[in-house]
Write a structure and sequence with these properties.
24% of the residues lie in helices and 31% in strands. The protein is of the alpha+beta class. The protein has a four-stranded antiparallel sheet with strand order 2-3-1-4. Strand 2 and strand 3 form a beta hairpin. The longest helix has 14 residues. It is globular. The two termini are 17 Å apart.
Length: 98
């Protein structure tokens, strides 16, 4: 079953200009990770400090493996240097058809 993950990010006011490059660098590795079906980044039109990464995964197991990899030295990115608070992760699957 495919999974859609939303990573809600709040960027430090003085780092908003750096966010696109850091996100692009970080998400290049995400997109290349086994099981990733794609990633889009959305920016709140009313708050330029609010970004949401929308990730699509082949399965919850692929997403779990990716999250675990991000906790390793090899998976670390600069993303933590630009956020004002811990990101909020929400993972969803498609609801059964009624």
């Amino acid at each position: 079953m495919t999974i859609t993950s939303f990573l809600d990010l709040r960027i430090l006011a003085d780092r908003v200009a750096d966010a696109p490059k850091i996100l692009a660098d970080t998400l290049a590795d995400t997109r290349a990770f086994d099981g990733c079906l794609g990633v889009d980044v959305l920016v709140d039109v009313a708050d330029p400090r609010h970004f949401v990464a929308v990730e699509r995964w082949q399965s919850i197991e692929h997403d779990d493996a990716y999250r675990e990899w991000r906790t390793t030295d090899a998976g670390r990115s600069e993303l933590g240097t630009i956020v004002s608070e811990p990101p909020v992760l929400t993972r969803l699957s498609t609801a059964p058809q009624s």
